[in-house]
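Notes from the 1:1 (GR / supervisor)

We went over the backlog. Supervisor wanted to see one worked example end to end before approving the batch request, so GR pasted a single chain during the call. The sequence is below; no edits were made to it. Supervisor asked that the structure be written out right there so they could see what the output format looks like.
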Amino acid sequence: MSNIIVEFKDVHKSFNGLLIHNGINLSILEGEIMSLLGGSGSGKSVLLKELIGLIKPDRGDIVVFGKNITQMREHDLIRLREHIGLLFQGAALFDSLTVAENIAYPLREHLDLTESEIKNRVAEKLHVVGLSGIENKMPVELSGGMKKRVGLARAIATEPDIILYDEPTTGLDPITAQRINDLIVELQRKLGVTTVVVTHDLHCVRMVSDRIAMLHEGKIIMVGTWEELAASGIPAVKDFISGTICD
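Structure output shown during the call:
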């Protein structure tokens, strides 16, 4: 894991005068699981949106696959997103579509596959997340954990090089949350993908992360392993790890 696949270089971002990023510098290595920690308003989810070009920074560069996406046109950003999967916090399934149709949606949007190939791909990804045979169910029929896993199947449907997770275990019971944690690690190992996780779940961070980046007051104040963060003498890191910072 030596190749840098994503790099934030002196990224600044404000919304209505509120400073969110004040010189973010962060390198994410190919094949690693990087978790982003920080309190409310620290800009973790904004980083994910900047990474896929949904939000442009006011200043600075974001390099993905060796290309500066802050200078890309929308057409090129759409092509870039074909290589990035995103699991939204609430799974964000289309209520009016079946499970199969939800997973097939990005395949029809981005890839030139036959209907038979799409059907096989949907079945394959459902098998990967442990939900074989539920193609015809509607989202309303699924539990919260099942929705997350269907959302994950959709995120990996295009076989991306990067998977982004926005609060993957929020609202789940401990057993289901652990299942999601296991899936994050399993997919990274099986597919060799680069993984970025935004979470407040410290158990999730401990279980899945190769490295962790701590955001505080608009900057990355520390990057390291869980053991390194737990042993850190930086006050903001110590407070967050000990649970005195709440979100």
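Supervisor's comment: The chain is about 35% helix and 25% strand.
Batch request approved.
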